[in-house]
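Problem statement: downstream parser choked on a complex file, so we are re-checking the raw output for the flavin-adenine dinucleotide run. The parser issue turned out to be on our end (a line-ending mismatch), but while we're here, posting the original submission so the record is complete.
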Amino acid sequence: MEMNGMNVKIGALECKNPVLTASGTFGYGLEYQDFVDLERLGGFIVKGTTLHHREGNAYPRMAETPSGMLNAVGLQNKGVDYFIEHIYPQIKDINTNIIVNVSGASIEDYVACAEKIDALDSIPAIELNISCPNVKQGGMAFGVTPNGAESVVKAVRKAYHKTLIVKLSPNVTSITDIAKAVEGAGADSVSLINTLLGMAINAETQRPELSTITGGLSGPCVKPIALRMVWQTYNAVKIPIIGIGGIQSATDAIEFILAGATAVEIGTANFVDPNITMKVVDGIADYMQRHKIDNINSLRGALKI
Amino acid sequence: MQKIQSDLRVVDNQRLSARACLITLESIDKLPRIRAGQFAELLVPDCPGVYLRRPISIHAVDTEHNRVEFLVQLVGKGTNALAAVKPGEIINTILPLGNGFDVENMTYKHPLLIGGGIGIAPLYQLGVDMAKNGIQPTFLFGTRSKQDIILMDKYSRIAPLEYTTEDGSFATKGFVTDHVLMNADIKKFDALYVCGPTPMMKAVVQKAALSQIDCYVSLEHKMACGLGACLCCVEVIDGTNTCVCKDGPVFKSDRLQWK
Ligand SMILES: Cc1cc2nc3c(=O)[nH]c(=O)nc-3n(C[C@H](O)[C@H](O)[C@H](O)COP(=O)(O)OP(=O)(O)OC[C@H]3O[C@@H](n4cnc5c(N)ncnc54)[C@H](O)[C@@H]3O)c2cc1C
Ligand SMILES: Cc1cc2nc3c(=O)[nH]c(=O)nc-3n(C[C@H](O)[C@H](O)[C@H](O)COP(=O)(O)O)c2cc1C
Ligand code: FES
């Protein structure tokens, strides 16, 4: 039941609807083929990809928390060349937007990875994950200072010619300062939020639940924070925003759009219901009908205050 | 292998002991092909505090009636809520997941199936399928105490069954690795299949290596998606982090890096 009026634009990227999936929670799309018609998605964002192979962190990497979970996967992936050779051929003909999430430990790594993906015809956009630690500058994440964010986005912007989405970390004092810096550096869009830094302890064993002690919190428990950050960012920048964080229903997605998001990404909810994205697409269409909305874009930032 | 997400109806939920129950679910539609050793992800109904699905091994499959059986140990919120489900209720289930045991291509004649605690769960259907294929399995189960022994009749109908108990309240006192089948008699077997707590599996893997017997472990790592998408459930296999949910849960022990 695809409706007209669901199309949205993110930079030069045209999406048939505003529902995408979040990096690291949807594999390469193929893992969900039995449950989802991938071509009914506005797009999907594949696993975090780095220039070189990464083993990720030691097990245990996951802990359930009230209404959410912590993860410490640590960007395990086989590197961009492996992606291009072995995975890209399997997914390139799927008729939706396939976006690669790019990570790196240095500016050179980000640029080299983005350049390689620029050459792939069926990848119309990248999502730059700037929450990774900058190994050259003492391990502080690029995304936690406006200068750090600006420098990496500027460098990638020069090397990458398609739609550049920059994914923001919520672990900052002022998300709007970072968003403005990223906009100034030439990003076409910002997506937010990545996971919030958290921790879980097992009182019986008196040990941390994760091998890395701290990890990234996601799921419905982060939604109010994500909504607030999308709203603040909407009031600070002009580029389109992709809202992420705890979305598990069409109502949640609509709330993000009302707060100013052009599109949304669904992450952890895919683990609970692998068919959730289809339900959200149908639910948004249903909401538009009930509220007599012809075009989803008219709802963006339409919060009544 | 085709995976489904489906609302399955509870047709039976038997309490077997203070810490275990046996749940039978039925599908309206024809169930896909399911292998012994594969698992399902169950959505625990109406359970505050339980957000993710719970991975549970397929204990038995009844293809004729489209039924699957789960043997569940009560360890926390989710499994206690599962123990309370009543016939007629619905459990949203994703299955079949993981690789399972490859019984069709098995060349062993006399395997020993070793279960520790609830680790017996994936071994029942394995024993059934082995027997059907002319293989003669033997079960060896270890529990803490006599009152933890469950489904003795059901298992002993499939194959010879031996026990150890840690407190000596039944059969041989000690761990499974103390049993004569794993010591003087170990050469009677051409393969070991083991599922249970990690220290127990490690001890069995060590014995298998010493006796140069092929050994397969079924791992129970913490999982989020169960589909190979999140990379939360990894074990180092052939030197690299590998998803237990997708490439396992069954691995040949020489591929592990256990010390
Ligand atoms: C592939 C696979 C097959 C499994 N098959 C079975 C089965 O057939 N029968 C069965 O009873 N259990 C099985 N388990 C274990 C089962 O998934 C956990 O016991 C269950 O998720 C615990 O949920 P809970 O809400 O009751 O416990 P929680 O409240 O989440 O935790 C209670 C305690 O259980 C521990 N725990 C949580 N998850 C696991 C886990 N995955 N493995 C071991 N301990 C855990 C926690 O550390 C904690 O100490 C299997 C696990 C996997 C990965
Ligand atoms: C297991 C897991 C792995 C993730 N991996 C990545 C990643 O590789 N790159 C990235 O930018 N975000 C990653 N994320 C963050 C998500 O894309 C998303 O921003 C976050 O989970 C919040 O959305 P949610 O609450 O809908 O899950 C990961 C999240 C989870 C749970
Ligand atoms: S649980 Fe997600 S990859 Fe195994």
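For whoever reads this later: Chain A is about 30% helix and 20% strand.
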